[in-house]
Design brief:
The protein is α/β, with parallel strands linked by helices and 387 residues long. The protein has 3 domains: 75 residues, no CATH class; 91 residues; 182 residues, von Willebrand factor, type A domain (Rossmann fold). It contains 11 helices and 14 strands. Strands 7-6-5-8-9-10 form a 6-stranded mixed β-sheet, sandwiched between helices. A 4-stranded antiparallel β-sheet has the order 4-11-1-13, with no helix packed on it. About 16% of the residues have low confidence.
């Protein structure tokens, strides 16, 4: 059988090599090897005269596969003629760790969808020991004297977002070292998923460390603090409360360490009190106060204990008055322990009105025979949403 080799070669090459390949450029912009095309032409012309049509057809198929495997200008994978599916020998890059959904994740979602109000409750004995092991049935919860159904109940050591509000005013000079130690003791009870921020204040408040999971970063920053200036305590609390809006954890707390009242803030006590009532943040305070008869004690310093107590009680937290600065680390450790041994009660208010009014909350303990006299402590209430 006579074969027109020139026309056969042209037809096969037209089918196997697109026009852009014959011009020397592939469809994705890579340079294609013209010498390889000329070589294939010579091989085909020489072979067509001696090969049968069936053998020739098989040969052309192999050549087509070679071209397809080299479309990207690289040799076939593994050095063979035919390249199979790509096999990844290294893991694909992850966009981020996917953590399993926790009870707190679900609780946070419920809170947004159903306006679930969360009330942290600490239960202690007469000696100040923390009572653990209570169940949901041991609590009754009221809002404006109307009993509410407790829909969620947790008692685990949940991750927290904590703001440290640290006094660096002039009067803190000889108290700074013990105050630093107090922060270090407080952070020893930290959960790996906790986050912390630091606000320092003297003449004015300053956010010196944004939210971070690193307790060392907070402590390292405090190592270089110096005492000077006046005391803008209320501004420091207000700044920390405002930053708490960026917290990632449902449970939030502020630890204040100061030695006196306020004499340099822009915000008033009433403004800050209303702010802390609106926020879902517990406030704990360590007050380092001199005795009532101390020489040179200013009126602001005399009001310091009442100021810290007022702020803490509004949120269900506590204030601790320290006369001996050597006791500060132990007190701070006690606060950390309390935060890790609280119950969190969640309820959806029966009053659905969004009137922005303050609603008083009350918690009672029931069925606690055999436990002696135990006392609950909780935040006093919250402001209803307005929209």
């Amino acid at each position: 059988m006579k074969v027109n080799t020139d026309s056969a070669i042209k037809r096969r090459l037209s089918a196997m090599f697109p026009a852009e390949h014959r011009r020397g450029v592939s469809s994705d912009g890579h340079c294609y090897t013209k010498a390889r095309v000329r070589c294939m032409k010579r091989l085909l012309k020489k072979s067509l005269a001696t090969l049968s049509p069936f053998t020739l057809l098989g040969f052309l198929c192999v050549v087509g596969l070679l071209v397809a495997s080299d479309e990207d200008g690289r040799p076939p994978a593994g050095g063979g003629i035919l390249a199979g599916p790509e096999v990844l020998t290294t893991p694909r890059a992850r966009t981020g760790p996917v953590a399993p959904e926790s009870v707190l994740d679900r609780r946070a979602d419920i809170r947004i969808d159903k306006n679930l109000v969360l009330i942290p409750v600490a239960v202690t004995t007469q000696l100040g020991q923390y009572v653990t092991g209570l169940d949901k049935e041991n609590f009754k919860l009221f809002e404006n004297n109307v009993e509410q159904e407790i829909e969620s109940f947790t008692a685990e050591d949940a991750p927290m977002s904590v703001g440290v509000v640290f006094d660096t005013s002039g009067s803190m000079g000889n108290k700074l070292q013990r105050s630093r130690q107090a922060v270090a003791e407080f952070m020893k009870s930290a959960n790996p998923e906790d986050e912390f921020l630091l606000v320092q204040f003297n003449d004015q408040a300053e956010l010196t460390v944004h939210f971070t999971p690193s307790t060392e970063e907070i402590q390292n920053r405090l190592m270089f603090t110096q005492s000077k200036g006046r005391t803008a305590l209320l501004d420091g609390v207000y700044m920390a409360m405002n930053e708490m809006k960026k917290a990632r954890n449902p449970r939030k707390a502020i630890l204040i360490i100061s030695d006196g009242g306020d004499n340099s803030s822009r915000y008033t006590q009433n403004e800050v009190r209303n702010f802390v009532r609106e926020a879902d943040v517990q406030i704990y305070a360590i007050g380092i106060f001199e005795g009532l008869g101390a020489r040179g004690r200013t009126p602001e310093e005399a009001d310091g204990p009442d100021l810290l107590r007022d702020l803490a009680e509004q949120t269900g937290g506590r204030d601790f008055e320290v006369d001996n600065i050597g006791e500060m680390p132990d007190v701070a450790a006690k606060i950390g322990l309390e935060l890790r041994n609280q119950y969190v009660l969640g309820y959806s208010p029966k009053n659905k009105e969004r009137d922005g009014k303050f609603r008083r909350v009350q918690v009672k303990l029931v069925k606690t025979q055999g436990l002696g006299q135990i006392t609950p402590r909780w935040r006093l209430g919250y402001y209803a949403p307005t929209q």
